[in-house]
Specification:
The chain is built from four helices and 15 strands. By secondary structure, it is an alpha+beta fold. It binds 2-amino-4-trifluoromethylsulfanyl-butyric acid and cobalt (II) ion (2 copies).
């Protein structure tokens, strides 16, 4: 069942999303060589709590962190640990903020220090792929239109699309219907309606699309150890288009 949010629910989700956005802005300053992912995780929790939100990833299906922090070849669900961030790493911070019973979900890939131009372009193209997906959102469009736009852009830039993990509806629950794959065919899948809220989140690899689950039973990484990037916004479907809820 795909829920349609009321004006009241949308107002709360806007707040949850805004806290998430501000927390990303704030944490960006701390993502430097020498800091551990556990220190970042604590910091994120402090920032979000101070703003009146809850880091709802914590204990979600037993997840042992407030944020998913995935480095380089790790795609998603990296567990905060004593791992030290190094110059040249790309760090994905993915966390949900719960506020007054509603969720928001946002991810950014942060570049630490110097990287090759190829890596910078890769990260930037992953963000652009997310916006390609978001731009097609409008009442009457279909879920397949989003995935098609994302994968088309990714492939044009020589990037592969992780297929095992998908975007999703979001509301009172972090994960709601529908699933939003980052691939698809135009004019297929569920029809978008005004008041639906979707998390759009392409995970793109510089090498092959194949991934595996690490021994910790959470973290997904690329088979060929190539870099993976991830961006995510929580987006409201409207009559004329969309509104990004995890924004300014
Ligand atoms: N935020 C992730 C997503 O984009 C889900 C994280 S689940 C957790 O859907 F348990 F790992 F936190
Ligand atoms: Co997320
Ligand atoms: Co998500």
């Amino acid at each position: 069942m795909i829920s349609i949010k009321s004006a009241r629910e949308i107002a709360i989700m806007r707040e949850a999303g805004h806290i998430n956005y501000l927390a990303h802005q704030e944490i960006a300053k701390y993502i430097k060589p020498g800091i551990t992912t556990l220190e970042l995780d604590k910091k994120i929790n402090n920032i979000v709590t101070k703003m009146g939100g809850i880091c709802s990833c914590y204990n979600y299906e037993g997840f042992p962190g407030h944020a998913c922090i995935s480095i380089n070849d790790e795609v998603v669900h990296g567990i905060p640990s004593k791992r030290i961030i190094k110059n040249g790493d790309i760090v994905k911070l993915d966390f949900t903020v719960r506020k007054d019973g509603y969720e928001s979900d946002m991810t950014r890939t942060y570049i630490v220090g110097e990287v090759e131009d190829k890596v910078r372009e890769f990260v930037s193209n992953t963000e652009l792929a997310m916006y390609e997906g978001i731009k097609v959102i409008k009442e009457g469009k279909r879920v397949g239109d989003i995935g098609y736009a994302i994968s088309n852009f990714a492939h044009l830039h020589g990037l592969s699309v992780v297929e095992e993990l998908v975007g999703h509806g979001i509301g009172c629950n972090m994960h709601e219907d529908p699933e939003v794959p980052n691939y698809g065919e135009p004019n297929t899948g569920k029809v978008l309606k005004s008041g639906m809220v979707l998390a759009i989140e392409p995970m793109l690899n510089l090498g092959s699309k194949e991934v595996y689950m690490k021994d910790n039973d959470w973290t997904i990484a690329t088979d060929d150890e190539s870099l993976s990037a991830h961006f995510e916004h929580t987006v409201l479907v409207t009559k004329d288009g969309y509104e990004i809820l995890t924004g300014e």
